[in-house]
Write a structure and sequence with these properties.
The chain is mainly beta. The chain is built from two helices and 22 strands.
Length: about 260
């Protein structure tokens, strides 16, 4: 029956194609290596204008049609209510199956959450996460957001990774380098500590008093460092020992530790 059906389909296709020959006249494609012209289908015209059908094309078409399951032509497949069950459930995928459709029409898909709820993740410590549930019933946990770790690379950069990378909780994050976010704070009268507010990078440096400022209350002229230390500029005064010379002193404001 299947063979007769396939043969009937091929004959019907040929009967439909040949009358359409004239319709494809504007779509002629020359095939110089064969001396033929193609009209966008399995019809070819040789140099004498004779229309031909390649047997290889017919054989290929027949083979493809023969591979179609018999029940594909059964209208019942497309008219019943599917009764889905899920089989072959694993960490990545599940297979959806309908008994009335038959196993040839099973569909395998990746899990997708249809609902999620807050939960806790336990891995060396406790993290916030979501409990996800797929329509097949499979459940898994993921982090609510990447739990970032910063490690020093050099004086300029640190590396950013996820604390849960490599576990089933992290959906995947590529480590990357970024510049330090530096903060300067006074350590003494003329030195400060430079720290990154994300990683453990730290170094000490001398203050650089270069920014000029005037105190709005006292009117003092100051030179500021980025860390907050400052010195007060003293007005130039004549040197008592030399009427022709002047000297000036900058008063360094003592640093007081909060400790």
């Amino acid at each position: 029956m299947k063979k007769n059906l396939a043969t009937g389909i091929i004959i019907a296709i040929i009967l439909i194609i040949i009358p359409c020959y004239a319709v494809y006249a504007d779509l002629v494609v020359d095939l110089p290596e064969t001396g033929l012209k193609s009209y966008g289908n399995i019809i070819y015209e040789d140099e004498n204008g004779t229309v031909q059908l390649y047997a290889e094309d017919i054989a290929f078409l027949h083979e493809e049609i023969m591979s179609i399951p018999d029940d594909i032509f059964d209208a019942g497949i497309y008219s019943h209510v599917h009764e889905w069950t899920y089989i072959d459930v694993n960490e990545k995928t599940h297979t959806r199956s309908c008994e009335k459709c038959g196993s040839l029409h099973n569909i395998t898909n990746e899990h997708k959450p249809i609902k999620s709820e807050n939960c806790s993740l336990e891995y060396q410590t406790i993290y916030d996460g979501y409990l996800c549930t797929c329509k097949c019933g499979y459940t898994w946990k993921i982090e609510q957001s990447h739990n970032l770790i910063y490690s020093v690379v050099n004086e300029t950069n640190h590396k950013v990774t996820c604390a849960l990378a490599g576990t089933g909780f992290c959906e995947g994050m590529e480590p990357y380098d970024e510049e330090h976010t530096l903060i300067k704070s006074p350590e003494s009268n003329d030195t400060h500590v430079i720290k990154c507010d994300k990683c453990f990078f730290e170094k000490k440096d001398e203050c650089n008093f270069i920014k000029e400022s005037v105190d709005e209350i006292t009117g003092e002229k100051r030179l500021l460092c980025e860390c907050g230390n400052y010195i007060v500029e003293q007005d130039l005064e004549p040197d008592p020992g030399d009427d022709n010379s002047v000297s000036a002193n900058n008063l360094i404001i003592p640093y007081e530790s909060e400790d």
